[in-house]
Recover the amino acids of this structure.
């Protein structure tokens, strides 16, 4: 049987938004509506006729709403086969109503997990009845339309308008295919919550964006994920694969500075080339740019405060690919939009980034917890006779954050909450330090009184020696080398303070 008249519908949705047009067309086509709890109350409030599920089952909603639709009279109405004589006889015998349309919007389990509520609240957002309704309706697609997501509401209205209240077999099968996909994704989200890191890896993400190309033009690139939940693009050309890598690094970095005064960062090829915290965003941008004005060309810019017009005016002359901010002053936005290809993004700072990372490796995958430790004052252990001053401690922690987000091996130099320079991605820690010093000298910085951060321990005192010769007065590093004493002794002899964190921040 191809065309089937929709005579009855069961509606049970968590989110009522977008339901009105469907109800209007169902009423227009004289469809009998069954519903539960809040959904029924909503339909009642619109003045539409609706029958409560309890009137069919003779059972109220029980266990705090955990059990509402799980009843043979409901599932018999969905799963019966119109072409099966025995099925028809049974539903008549037990007074089971025929249900031709099922509309379900599941409890938002994944969103609840991401909202960081307690486990009890998360568990209560595991939908039981809704997922059962979806599977039953989708299984019986020959006789029933299954709408499992709000994104299909408009399509359903189109179908009912076009077919004058009927549905075709191909349409029902298309909806069923989507329904099983929704069901699978939902179960996968629950599985991921309970298993987290285990002996089994599952990736289930249907949302995708085809990119212009991958890292290079000859490579295909695709992004999988709900990017719009984290960033909103309001101007510019299509975001590229490389843009996304830089944006990822930028957002992870700026998240560390949520509670700082106005902070501006400039990144290039996933590394920070400029960063400063100041009383005004304009000053923060200027000092971040001064850190490396050459590398900033074509870079990614990000800040932790709404972008104001004075800052936009100052940065507008710089060629950069992307600007990211939690918001924009209207004047600032209008100015930045003058360059049509400039990618302008709004960063949803309330969004909680994933705590796990995954990357391909050889013929498999590497899976790990993200490095979520931020070095704090309470973590610091002074190992030298000299202790760092309060201002030096601020700079040391500032440098440590940057170091954590820079490719290993790395050395970061900071002075007065400003990134002076860094040596990044070197095979030798000495090379990283020498690179940082040379870069600082190139841009005319006075290293006297600056501090140094290293992403791993010093196996020898050579880095401490080079630091001393260049006026660096304090060092932060993890410690843990069997020869730590050599670096400590050198610092003591030369009035350099050094603190250990006990935490290594490699980033390969």
């Amino acid at each position: 049987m191809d065309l089937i008249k929709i005579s009855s519908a069961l509606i049970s949705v968590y989110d009522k938004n977008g339901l009105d047009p469907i109800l209007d067309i169902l009423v227009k086509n004289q469809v009998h509506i069954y519903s539960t709890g809040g959904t029924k109350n909503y339909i009642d409030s619109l003045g539409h006729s609706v029958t409560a599920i309890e009137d069919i089952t003779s059972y109220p909603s029980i266990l705090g709403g955990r059990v509402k639709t799980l009843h043979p009279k409901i599932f018999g109405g969905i799963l019966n086969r119109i072409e099966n004589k025995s099925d028809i006889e049974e539903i008549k015998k037990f007074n089971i109503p025929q249900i031709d349309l099922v509309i379900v919007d599941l409890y938002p389990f994944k969103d609840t997990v991401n909202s960081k509520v307690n486990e009890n609240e998360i568990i209560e957002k595991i939908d039981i009845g809704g997922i059962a309704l979806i599977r039953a309706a989708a299984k019986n697609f020959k006789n029933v339309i299954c709408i499992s997501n709000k994104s299909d509401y408009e399509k359903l209205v189109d179908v009912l308008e076009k077919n004058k209240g009927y549905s075709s077999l191909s349409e029902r099968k298309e909806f069923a295919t989507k329904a099983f996909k929704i069901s699978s994704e939902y179960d996968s989200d629950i599985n991921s919550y309970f298993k987290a890191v285990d002996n089994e890896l599952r990736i289930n993400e249907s949302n995708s964006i085809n990119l212009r190309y991958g890292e290079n033009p000859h490579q295909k690139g695709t992004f999988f994920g709900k990017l719009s939940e984290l960033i909103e693009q309001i101007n510019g050309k299509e975001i590229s694969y490389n843009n996304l890598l830089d944006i990822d690094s930028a957002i992870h970095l700026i998240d560390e500075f949520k509670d700082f005064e106005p902070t501006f960062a400039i990144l290039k090829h996933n590394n920070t080339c400029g960063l400063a915290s100041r009383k005004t965003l304009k000053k923060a941008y200027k000092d971040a740019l001064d850190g490396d004005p050459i590398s900033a060309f074509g870079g990614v810019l990000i800040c932790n405060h709404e972008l104001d017009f004075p800052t936009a005016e100052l940065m507008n002359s710089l060629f950069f690919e992307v600007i990211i901010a939690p918001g924009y002053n209207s004047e600032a936005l209008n100015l930045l939009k003058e360059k049509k290809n400039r990618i302008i993004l709004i960063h949803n700072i309330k969004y909680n980034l994933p705590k796990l990372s995954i990357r391909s490796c050889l013929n498999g995958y590497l899976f790990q917890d993200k490095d979520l430790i931020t070095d704090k004052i309470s973590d610091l252990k002074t190992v030298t006779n000299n202790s760092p001053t309060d201002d030096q401690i601020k700079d040391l922690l500032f440098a440590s954050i940057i170091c954590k987000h820079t490719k290993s091996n790395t050395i970061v130099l900071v002075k007065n909450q400003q990134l002076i320079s860094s040596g990044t991605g070197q095979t030798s820690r000495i090379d990283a330090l020498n690179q940082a010093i040379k870069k600082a000298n190139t841009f005319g910085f006075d290293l006297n009184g600056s501090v140094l951060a290293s992403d791993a321990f010093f196996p020898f005192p050579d880095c401490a020696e080079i630091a001393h010769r260049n006026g660096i007065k304090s060092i932060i590093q993890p410690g843990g080398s069997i020869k730590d004493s050599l670096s400590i002794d050198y610092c003591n002899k030369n009035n350099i303070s050094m603190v250990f964190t006990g935490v290594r921040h490699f980033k390969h």
The domain at 230-347 is CATH 3.40.140.20 (Cytidine Deaminase; domain 2).
